[in-house]
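Need fresh eyes. Consider my entry:
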Amino acid sequence: MNNSSLSMIFLLLAVAGLVFGIGVVVISRRKARAVPQIQRAAHVEVIAPVFEAVAVAPLSVRDRLAKARSSLSGAVGSVLGRSEINDATWLELEEALLRADVGVRVAQSLLGALQTRVKAKEITTPAQLIDALRDNMSSQLVGTSRDLNFEANVGGPNIWLMVGVNGAGKTTSLGKIAAQQIALGRTVLMAAGDTFRAAAGEQLSTWAERSGAQIVRGAEGGDPSAVIFDGVQSAHSRNIDLVLADTAGRLQSNTNLMEELRKVRRVAEKGAGKVTEVLLVIDATTGQNGLQQARQFTEATQVTGVVLTKLDGSAKGGIVFAIETELGIPVKLVGLGETIDDLILFHPTEFIDALFE
């Protein structure tokens, strides 16, 4: 065998060895990649999560009034921890009532009556004092009619005017009231009389869609009285029971707001309907500022009731006493949350219980 043949044989053997080696490496790598996948698949156990339905109880009025209760709870606890009634007792109670925004006049009235009874030995222990304070606060609220006024024999639609400053929750409260009245079986038309706030009409239209109410709107910046008058006439022609009229909380002109609201009330009753409620919407977090608002709006529109919004987020729940005691206007509805069901009728006993317990 010559040298050329031997060289060819060696070359073929070398190529064969190289190919074999490459094949071994490739197969090993594939196995190395495949083995962990097979192992992972073999050891993974898929367990479907099991969710158990848990009934969540709605928050109670007491729970929602935690911030309002905080204004009194510390003082009440401190007084009850004492062995006797002394000067510090009165200072703590007065401070707590003022923090709750009942107002100076109301606080002095409540505590003055109690001091007289303590001097007469009618009240001798801290526990009796707290019970008496609670009873006095209840007596100032119990007995007032808080029903929303609806007259069945008006000969046209009942008209409920919603008044208040911008930001108090006036338009939202109107929408919630509409939904509640429709749920009671009444037909409702909304009159978008807040023509000076760009978003008010759109906001009210959204509430009309949600609740199933009809709506009458005017041009932005137009005459609010004209919009409400058209709404009343439209409701009368369609035999609609109730007109809920939104009004401006601020004007973008030199026109005085209160004069504008007086005009709205006059014009609203020129047609077939009758104004049976004027609801003033007050943000509870404004405290004594809300009382000043109430004075102004009452003089202009003859307010018949108050809707107190955001009471769940305020430590100034005492404004209820200031409004009712100093102005004689009943709080009819309170807002304790964001949903329709969170605008509820005001129950004085439940409110007092929530403040003390």
Remarks:
- The chain has 13 helices and eight strands.
- The first helix runs from residue 3 to 43.
